[in-house]
Amino acid sequence: MKLVDFSPDGDAVGRRLGVVIGQQVHDIGRHAGVTLQDIIGDEALMAALRQYTEAAGEGEAPTWGSETVQTWPLDDVRLFAPLSQPPSLRDFYAFEQHVKTANANRGRPVPQEWYEVPVFYFSNHRAIYHPDDVIPYPTKSEALDYELEVACVISKAGRNINVAEAEDYIFGFMIFNDWSARDIQRQEMRVGLGPAKGKDFASS
User: Fold this and answer.
1) Which residue of 118, 124, 139, 171 lies most exposed, with the fewest beta carbons within 10 A?
2) Cα distance between residue 117 and residue 128, in whole Å
3) Is the confidence at residue 43, as pLDDT, over 80?
4) What is the C-alpha R_g of the chain?
5) Overall number of domains in the chain
6) Which of 42, 9, 131 is nearest to 82 (CA)?
């Protein structure tokens, strides 16, 4: 199931939840009155969305309750960041091949600790940008870069979760762009702390 926050006329005030089926956005938010962020943790609404998606995918007339759901061509709507105000944003060092390559470039092996603890840093959850936004970056940087990543969205509170129970806390996954000012990042991390301004200016 593919969920989006969108607006048919491009106005951010009217952004709402949509379900993407094929190349059409089904305007669920117009009937349910919600954005994507509103439904995280709402198991009843998620069950209704799954039922709707299954029925619509099988060719049934798209209805929400007793109302016909309007659809919009995907290319004609404005998409917004699925979660523009997450309560927390943590970027993990999780892809083993990337870790191996990065350490090999520095002439060292992968630390054993990487296999023992989930290492992350807190990124700026107040600097989330939408698709097609112009990304602001530190003015003195001459090495703007981004990493294409996969974000895992957590749907409920937890602490010290067992591996066997981990999937129960996952709402879904989305594409995530981790923006970096590499020259500033390298400079500030020589101090032994960070990343700071080299990383926290934008995510999308």
Assistant:
1) 139
2) 27
3) yes
4) 20
5) 2
6) 131
57 plus 123 within the same structural domain? no
- Domain membership flag for residue 198: no
Q: Where does a domain end: 33, 57, 80?
A: 80
- Is-contact 108 154, C-beta < 8 A? no
Give the active site residues: 98
Cα angle vertex 166, ends 161, 170, to 5°? 120
Q: Can you give 94-136 as a three-state secondary structure string? A: CCHHHHHHHHHHCCCCCCHHHHCCCCEEECCCCCECCCCCCCC
Q: Is residue 176 part of a domain?
A: yes
Whether the link from the prior residue into 195 is cis, omega within 30° of 0, is: yes
- C-beta separation of 71 from 27 below 8 A: yes
pTM for the complete prediction?
A: 0.87
Please indicate, yes or no, if residue 85 is contained in any of the structural domains.
no
Pairing of strands 2-7, 144-154: unpaired
